[in-house]
Write a structure and sequence with these properties.
Layout lengths: L4 E9 L1 E12 L2 E14 L2 E5 L4 E4 L3 E5 L6 E9 L7 E7 L2 E7 L2 E9 H12 L6 H28 L6 E3 L3 E4 L11 E2 L16 H9 L3 E5 L2 E2 L4 E2 L40 H9 L11 H7 L12 E7 H12 L6 E9 L5 E8 L3 E5 L1 H7 L10 E6 L8 E7 L7 E2 H9 L4 H8 L4 E4 L3
Parallel strand pairs: 1-13, 12-20, 16-23
Antiparallel strand pairs: 1-10, 2-3, 2-6, 2-7, 3-4, 4-5, 6-9, 7-8, 9-10, 11-12, 14-15, 14-24, 17-22, 18-19, 19-20, 21-22
Helix pairs in contact: 1-2, 1-3, 2-3, 2-8, 2-9, 5-8
């Protein structure tokens, strides 16, 4: 098997400013290109402009470097952390080819690059490139496996001509998950929706590149198929099953794992409400329960470190705050929020279905990310939550207290747990097989 290329959507906008460092050739215009440019949507086509001239091309134009190893391009004002509490803009530099397409009436900049070059950036973008060697190796393998699995899945969907559905809705229930619904024109995006990918801007240490080179072509496999190796920041003590977060497909290697080496005295059937409440309101021992700054800095980049409490955390809302947030995020006027009732929990205690009871409307929502979105201006860290009401007068709570566990969807590898395991002396293979039970590590290409 030959190393494939991957197409990564970096940013969207009506106008995108970019710079070409070195000589590039345009797929739809003669000559060599370098220097400063802008691209904009004009009449359903794309206008490319420089200080000297401009020209119109069709959607799908590609700028290819004449030397893929030595030439790069810069995209200005790339938004990272989209809709998260630390959202910001950066100028980012990339290897490979630059493609512009029109998507939903906007311009989309896409980077086309060999998988191994992509991975060196992903490992540095997802975590500190000075992380422990075994953690970087493990993350290289799961990042490679995940992206190759997405390429395969995209091809299968195109072959079947099936429309990918990620929502079921009735008058009283909305169940939605967020996965591939917007990724039909490229393989993956560059933000937390997929894997963080911020180009060569973030490759500031050799350790990430060395980990990618050491593990070149290695993947996690199950029954001769590439595993869809998901990961999140902190599982909160137990990982979640894939089907409870995304499409209703059961992957044997993406099932619940208690993130600890030894047994403890907690009931770990966290689908049961009493067990879930006790789990979330206490601190059961787990690999990912750490405050060791040396370890945390391996996984949490500067903007992530604004989050200090992630294993267990508390958010409080007044009645006015919660009713405004839910109305704004859901688009539904529930009136006063009378109750938030857990209806279904997953294997990690994450809520899969939540009933919102308002003075004007009652509705059930899910899955976990939809719940996190609706209950926060950005995202709750996790849907593994216990909701308490306070100061209730005439059946209307004056305050809601949300106690939570973990950070992220919780499926697959727990990054902070894996970092702790690496520091404890576990090898990359032991880390992977702890989180992806029943899987194996194989070489997919040389």
């Amino acid at each position: 098997m030959k190393e494939p290329n991957i197409s990564v959507a970096i940013m969207h906008g009506q106008e995108i400013k970019f710079e070409l460092y070195g000589d590039y050739r345009c797929s739809k215009h003669k000559g060599k290109f370098n220097g400063k440019f802008s691209a904009a949507v004009q009449g359903g086509q794309i206008k490319i402009s420089s200080e000297k001239n401009s020209f119109i091309v069709e959607s799908g134009v590609i700028f290819n470097p004449t030397n893929i190893e030595g030439e790069s391009f810069l995209l200005k004002d790339v938004v990272i952390g989209i809709q998260f509490h630390w959202e910001k803009k950066e100028n980012q530099r990339f290897l490979g080819s630059l493609q512009f397409i029109i998507e939903h009436g906007e311009l989309c900049a896409v980077n086309i690059i060999p998988v191994e070059q992509y991975l060196a950036s992903v490992i540095s973008s997802e975590m500190n490139a000075t992380s422990s060697e075994e953690l970087l190796k493990a993350h290289s393998i799961i990042s490679r496996s995940w992206v190759l699995a997405q390429i395969e899945k995209g091809r299968e969907l195109k072959k079947s001509a099936a429309r990918y559905e990620s929502k079921t809705q009735t008058e009283d229930e909305l169940i939605r998950w967020y996965d591939r619904e917007d990724h039909q024109n490229y393989d993956v995006c560059a933000d937390d929706h997929c894997q963080r990918y911020q180009g060569i801007t973030k490759i500031y240490a050799h350790a990430a590149q060395q980990a990618v080179e050491f593990t070149r072509g290695l993947i996690v496999s199950h029954e001769d198929k590439i595993c869809d190796t998901r990961f999140s920041k902190c599982c909160g003590g137990a990982t979640e099953s894939f089907e409870n977060v995304w499409e209703p497909v059961k992957h044997p290697y993406l099932q619940k794992v208690v993130d600890y080496k030894f047994p403890h005295d907690f009931d770990t059937d966290l689908r049961i409400e009493n067990a879930a409440v006790r789990w979330i309101k206490n601190n059961p021992p787990a690999f990912c329960d750490t405050h060791d700054q040396k370890i945390l800095k391996q996984v949490l980049l500067d903007y992530d470190q604004k989050t200090t409490d992630f294993y267990r955390w508390i958010v409080e809302y007044t009645q006015e705050q919660i009713s405004e947030i839910i109305k704004f995020k859901s688009g539904i006027d529930f009136g006063k929020i009378l109750d938030l009732i857990p209806l279904q929990r997953g294997e990690s205690a994450r809520l899969i279905k939540l009933k919102i009871v308002g003075s004007k409307r009652t509705m059930i929502i899910g899955k976990e990310l939809e719940i996190r979105r609706v209950l926060s201006k950005t995202h709750l860290y996790s849907s593994a939550i216990v909701i308490e009401k306070e100061n209730t007068q005439k059946d209307i709570p004056g305050k809601f207290v949300i106690r939570g566990a973990g950070w992220g969807h919780g499926v697959g590898l727990c990054q902070i747990g894996a970092a702790v395991m690496g520091e404890m002396g576990y090898g990359f293979d032991e880390i992977l097989l702890h989180y992806f039970r029943g899987a194996s590590i194989k070489r997919f290409y040389d």
